Amino acid sequence: MNCVQAFETIYKSAPHATSFCPYRVCPIGAHVDHQYGKITGLAIDKGITIAYRAKQNGVVELNSLNFEKRAQFHIHNVPEKKENDWADYLRGATYKLSQRYSLHTGMSGVIEGSLPIGGLSSSAAVIISFLKALCDVNNIALPASEYIEYTLLAENEYVGVAVGKLDPFCEVYAKKDHLLYLDTKDDSYELIPSNPDMKPYEIAIIYSGMERTLVGSMFNMRVDELKSAAFAIKAYSLGDGSGDSFDVPYGKHIDMRLRDVPNAVYRRYMDRLPDMWRRRAEHFYSENVRVEKGAGAWRRGDIDAYGKLIFESGYSSIYNYETGSDELKSIYEIMLRTDGIFGGRFSGAGFRGCCMALIDPAFKDRIVENITREYLAVFPQYKNTFLINFCQSSDGVNN
Hints:
This protein has helices at about 5-10, 90-100, 120-135, 145-160, 165-175, 220-235, 265-270, 275-300, 305-320, 325-335, 365-380, and strands spanning about 15-30, 40-55, 60-65, 70-75, 105-115, 180-185, 190-195, 200-205, 340-345, 355-360, 385-390, 395. With about 400 residues, the protein is of the alpha+beta class. It has a domain at about 5-195: Ribosomal Protein S5, domain 2 (2-Layer Sandwich). A hairpin with a 4-residue loop joins strand 6 (about 180-185) and strand 7. Helix 2 (about 90-100) crosses helix 3 (about 120-135), helix 4 runs antiparallel to helix 5 and helix 8 packs antiparallel against helix 9 (about 305-320). The relative contact order is 0.16.
């Protein structure tokens, strides 16, 4: 049953409209956006859809086809603190939006995700799809940049996950058959069209069978480790007399970003960092190089080179950034030896969830057969939840 049918069953009437936000994949540029790094990304033709109708009493009531608990709250009485369930993303978005805009109308709705939760920026997609619907019933014309702003406010300040701009930026500004090349430090971006000479490709989403959440995971710890590396390097460098030192106070730990530390300065002091922080920083600096090389490869239409960089990104995420569950690492290793895969890695934070890959469509059947056979031989407990889906690139909500 899809969300429109479910809405009609629950409310005995048709919805006023539907709101859709695509999921995203980040082939190269993982784990660097919160440090103002560079990323490449694609929106895909799967995502979050909400069927909805205005509710004049100001109550927001949302049923989910993915979660059992119904979300219900009043637009003028949103709890100031999270309640630790899936609806926190909706409450946070409403709470933050109401601080700038006058809300007068609630909504009833049914929300549906077209792929399993985990690794595809589903939380950002939920927020953006919800914001579109809430703004519609309240006659608010929200600028594209504010969809990103309120998504980050809801996730960072209300839910408490230190994510960066990657997810909402891809989901808002992406364009079909284009690669989004984004600098998260100044929000400058380029939509690089697929070169006419590029080999055909599709996007594979390989779901491990495990659900995953950033809240309560080690995600925030990794962010703190990168901030700590930046803080330490600035402290070591302060006033040391070198030409590339920092000769001004280096600020607070919470404000640290590795993007503010030039690579040359990092190289000068990297051996003085704890090994854990050094490896996290090594991922950041090497990933930014891979992003720049990847953007160039996409412009040339060299999907083989771009795919090789995806595999290298996945390796660094596992061994330098140290994320990736045993299940996702297994899928990564299988992809490395599977014909027809240009490049692949786990998607998102990598603690559970899924892997993504760019694949040659001519090899789809063999890819499914090989990955399924090898993965379930190691993890037979996921026989009923393991999935492989194939997707196309898609427009973001602003295109």
